[in-house]
Structures are given as structure tokens and as C-alpha cells.
Amino acid sequence: MTSSRAISRRQLLAGGLAAGAGLAVGGATGFGLARAAEPLDPGLQLVPFYGPHQAGIATAAQERIQFAAFDVLTDRRAELQDLLRTWTAAAAALTAGNPVGDLAGDPLRPPADTGEAVGLGAARLTLTLGVGPSLFGTPGNDRFGLASIRPAALAELPPFAHDQLDPASSDGDLCVQACAEDPQVAFHAIRVLARIGRGIVAIRWAQVGFGRTSSTTSQQATPRNLLGFLDGTNNVHGDDQQAMDTHIWVAPSDDPAWMHGGTYLVARRIRMRIEAWDRDSLGDQEATIGRHKLSGAPLGRAVERDPVNLAALGPDGQPVIPLGAHIRLAAPATNGGIELLRRGYSFTDGIDNATGQLDGGLFFICFQRDPRTGFVPVQTRLAASDALNEYIQHVGSGLFAIPPGTTAGGYIGETLFG
Amino acid sequence: MIKLRQAAAGFAVAVIVAACGTNGVPSGAAASLSPSRGSVAPDASAPLAADSVATYRTYLETNADLLVERTRLFVDAVVAAKVPAARALYASAREPYERIEPVAETFGDLDPAIDARENDVAAGAAFTGFHRLERALWQQNSLVGMAPIGKKLLADVITLQGLVKTVDLDPATIANGAVGLLNEVSASKITGEEDRYSHTDLWDFAANVVGAQEAFNAVRPLVAARSATLATTIDAGFQAVLDALQPYQKGTGFVLYNTLTAADTQPLSQLIDALADPLSQVAAIVVTAQ
């Protein structure tokens, strides 16, 4: 089925090389000029694209996300490599605030760049590319000759209790996480990459998110999720090198070698039963989460960053933080010291036509060194006992290996092809 | 299988063209094919815009004639109130129209009179043409009162047959017509809204694609002289779409569109998009060849 949908050819290689040349021109004549002529604006800040790790992980979380998972339509290894080369060149241009190709050339043909990001700057755009389990095929159907180097850590996620996953918004051969301070900059990036890849890849599912739900550096304030609670207080911080090396980045001692400096991304579309939550008493909401709603302090404490004392007992002899409270079950102390870098966003996609209720919630994203010892045991525990399960449902899921970063002249995913 | 995988990667071509220069043409090719001037004799082997126009005009007029011929049979059945006979003739009568629709659309109210869907018609305006008869045949299951609609349809396609002989054509217009036909597919055929009562959308789908391919083939020599890669990419893209339609063929026609699922229509839609992207590069290229 997949191969019969493939409509690509080797010309993409030429396309990729030509794109590189076109990008350089675009950089000199496109957004770059506009930037130099305008006063410096915080929205124009650049996040470096090249480096040992991909951007968009340790990067202080931007306010917006456009996430897309792709099916690869070809089964030719060279075409997949060509695509990743072309995407990398485009991503380098986009994250530098440049268009991909011309914005306005010949009136008789469509411009190469679609144009909606003109004047918006780079807006701290990061593009993070990942590869899903299905890209590695199976020993019987090894599409790209990658089956033998599939990381053990990229084992399919097990089914969790209460999952109601929609296959149409789950999985994928590739993913691109576009985060930016401006939603249109993030949208533009995904649109351009999808257009470049047309015929080679097709978007399988996509998710827009509008408010970061975690603080991912020691400097960032903790935001609120759609439940109205501070979320992501006890997160791994991208600027904590030691924690990143211990819990997030794939280490030189880990297998396989091509993932060194990479990480693993788990995405979950978590629908919130917002109407039911809004009927819940304040006391029960706080007991469900394990924090005070307004201050964000752990129950029984005064301020947000006060340590969570899971052992504390109240005057009634019961735990101050209930046994089913979300923060108890998600805490590293409950999970053998497991720490995840959470980098999720709130979403709303209108209403559920069947019920008229809001279709909104948390587009949960986390990064970890190994999902088998990261997301999987934590989610197994949460799915079994989290009091919050009454108000949430996991409806989409994706697992992706995020290869290491690259340098100018290289491309993301290059290590896959030895 | 092999054929399918030889088809096109749309934007890759767009990027190649974009990177080639301000007019989207590799400068070497443009120089060697510049129109000859002065005493130097024209290169007899160079493709001519006039040949492209002549080729497409023949196709256009042949289909306008066929449209009149088949519509006459269809309308005869409508006027005679023969529902099963009219149903059997409906899809094939539309076929020639769907191959050349962008040209028909240049004649003001003629396209709406012939081909408007019910929701295209403004409140209070008359709903006429093929889709009015389609509704009568499949939804109302009766042709009572439809004879005047049928006669008007036949008169309209005869008017169109005369008008297409007068239409101004140039290679860029022909190329843009091909893109327009594929946009028709992705806007209304792939959604199943074109033939919402009869579900014969795949006849229209295939006719749009074939019409676009003929339009492209007419200008293909001009394209190939500038970019052989673009020409073969588009060839392969057409082949991929036609191959993908193959499983849905049934007898001389197609299966009904309401038997297809999203899993069937999404790949078709993606193939159309992947073909239309490189095709959108053609107009700029053929203009420089004139």
C-alpha cells in the first residue's frame, strides 16, 4: 500500500542541492533585508539551528507549537535521505528567519516561499525532526534497510488503561515539531516542509497548540494549563546540563551509536473533560492535582517551588497529598527517580460534534533518554491510579526517536544512514 | 508498481526552477532557444507555440463536438421521460465537458447554466443544467417537468460548441487550464460533492485528469525544450494518478463514489497535489518559448 502511493523520483536529490543554492539567495534578499531595516524586536530572536543536539528540546519553551507527523510514501532509501537533506537546508533557513527560495519572482509561476511569515522574523522558531518506529519497518518488510539499527528504546508504546487512541491522530514515520513565539511562523514552517516533501511524504496528522504548559528553564515562570493549575513546576530544565545528560540525552554508553546526542519524544493528545472539571469543587480539584490552585504550592505548603513532601500526614492521619493525586503519581520519587522533560501545549480544536462539548486539552510532549524507563512506567502508574483520569482521556499518541543535531553541511538524520 | 514510483516530487521541481534564475528558466537553455532574428533561418526543429495551440484547439473542438453529440442522446431520453436510459447516459454525456471545462468557464454564464451545483445557485435564480437533471433522476426519481431543462441544456452546449472556435489560446493559458482542471478535482471531485445524487464523481475526476494531460501534452514540446526533467516529472505524475484510478474502474466506467472511504480518497488527493505542483511551473516556462 505504501509503495503504491509513492510518487517520487531521484530528481529530489537535484532538488535538494538546488534548494541549498536557492536558500542562500533567499537569505540575502528576503526576510534578512527587512530585518536589518527594522529596529531589533524580541520576536526576531534566533535560536541556533546547528549544534550537537537538535533545538526545541533544551530550548526555553516558546509560546506556540505546530506539530506534524508524516507518512513516508516512497520506499527508496536514497529518496528518504534526499528529503532529510532538503528539509535540513530549509529548516536552517527558516529558523534563521529566511524564506525558502524566492518570495516574488516570476508572475507566471507560484513563488517558492508561500510568504505568510514575511515580516514576522524568526520568532525563536525551532524545528525538531524525529523518526517513528514504523520507519524502521520489520525484518520481513525492511523498507529502508534500517530494521537492524532500530533502537530497542524505540519499542512501540504499550496500551495503557483508559486509552482511546484514534489511529488517524497517532503514530507516523517522521515528525516535525515546530515551536515559535508566533503561531504563523510555526505554521509556515510546517507548510513549507510539507510542500517541499509533496510526493515523498504526506502529513498523517497535525496538532496546533497555543500555550506552553511547562517551564523548561530555571528562568521561565510556570504557566497554567486548561485545568487552571500551574503545570510543569518540577520539570527537567534545559539549562541544567547534568540533569539533561542524565535523563534526557542519549549517552555515548547507550545503543545505538547513531542516537548519541539524541533523545526520544513521546506525544500524547490528552483531551480534557472540561465541562465536568468545571463542575468539580475547588477542594476536589486541588486534591486531584495535589497543589493549591492559585498559588501552585504543593498541598499544605505556601509557595509553588516549595518541595513536595509526599510523606507528610495531616491532622487526620491521612497523607496531605492524597494517594491518587496527580503530582504524587507523576513525581520522580514515586517513579524510581525517573525524570522527563515535559514540553507540552494546550490545544482547542473547536467542539466535539457528537456532544457539543469543547474539544480541548493538553498536547503532552516529553523528552527522555529511554521511553521504556521514562514515559512508559510513569504513564502506567498514572493510568492505573491518577485521580485526574476522571477528567482526561488520551486520544492520540506518537513515539519518535530524535536524532542528534548537525553542523553546516550535514543533515538531521544523517547518522541513521551510516 | 514501478510506474507509480516513477512519478513526480512536486516541490523539488519548483525549487529547481526557482533556483535557476529570475525567469525560472535555466539560462543556457533559454539562450539556445531564443527566437532567431535577422537573416538566420529559424531552427526548423524548435518547438513552436503555434503548434501547441493548434494541437490543443483540435482537442478542444473535438470534445465540444462530442459534448453536443452525447448531450443530445441524454436529452432525448430526458424529454422522453425515460429515467433508466437517461441515468445510463448522464456520466458519459458530462465527460467531454469535464475535459475542457476551463475553456467553457471563460464564457460568462454558460458554465453555471450547464454545470452549476445546487448550492452554487443564488437564491431566486434558476437551477438548470446537468446537475438539475441529476437531481431529478436520482433524488426525485422522476423526469416530470424536466423537458424544458433538457432542451435548454442542449441549446447551451450547442452555443458552447460555436464559441470554443472563437477562443483565444496561447501556451500559458493552456498550461494554466491544466492546473485549473486538477484544482477542480481537488476542490469538488475528491469531496464527492460534484455528483452528489448520482455518485458518478469518478467519471468527472478521470475526465478532468485526462483533459489536463492532453492540455499538458499540447505544450509539452515547449516544456521539454526548457526542462526535460520537469516534463518527465509531470508525465510520471499523470501516470501515477491514472494508475491509482485503475482499481476503481468498472466496465466502461467507474464504481460509485460513495463506495470509497477516506483511506481510498486521501491517496488520490495526495497524488493530484503532487502532480499539480510541478504543473504550476509550466506556464512561466512556455511563455519564454514564444
Characterise the protein shown here:
The complex is a heterodimer of chains A (418) and B (290). In chain A, 51% of the residues are buried. Chain A has helices at 2-5, 11-29, 31-37, 77-95, 183-196, 241-248, 274-277, 282-289, 326-330, 375-385; strands spanning 64-72, 126-131, 174-180, 201-209, 211-212, 263-272, 341-342, 345-351, 358-368, 392-402. Chain A is globular and about 75 Å long. In chain A, strand 8 and strand 9 form a beta hairpin. Chain A has 418 residues and is α+β, with helices and mostly antiparallel strands. Helix content of chain A is 24%, strand content 18%. Chain A starts with a helix and ends in a 16-residue tail after the last strand. Chain B is mostly helical. Chain B has 14 helices and 2 strands. Chain B has helices spanning 2-5, 10-20, 27-32, 49-79, 83-99, 101-104, 110-115, 130-139, 147-164, 171-189, 201-226, 228-245, 262-279, 282-287, and strands at 249-250, 253-254. Chain B has a two-stranded antiparallel sheet. In chain B, helix 5 (83-99) runs antiparallel to helix 8. The longest helix of chain B is centred in the N-terminal third of the chain and has 31 residues, at 49-79. The radius of gyration of chain B is 21 Å and the shape is globular. The two termini of chain B are 38 Å apart.
- The stretches of 5 or more residues of chain B where confidence is low (pLDDT under 50) are 1-42
Strand count, sense and barrel status of the largest sheet of chain B are: 2 strands, antiparallel
Helix content of chain A: 10-25%
* Total beta-strand segments of chain A: 10
Mean pLDDT level of chain B: 85
Helices and strands of chain B, in order, run as HHHHHHHHHHHHEEHH
The tally of helices of chain B reads 14
What percent strand of chain A? 15-25%
Shape category of chain A: globular
The oligomeric status of these chains comes to heterodimer
Question: Strand order of the main beta sheet of chain B, please?
Answer: 1-2
* Pair with the biggest interface: A-B, 40 and 42 residues
The radius of gyration computed from the alpha-carbon positions of chain A, rounded to a whole number of angstroms, is 22 Å
**Portion in strands of chain B:** under 5%
* Classification by helices and strands of chain B: mainly alpha
Quote the distance from N terminus to C terminus of chain B. 38 Å
Characterize the overall form of chain B.
Answer: globular
Alpha carbon gap, first and last residue of chain A: 28 Å
Helix count of chain A equals: 10
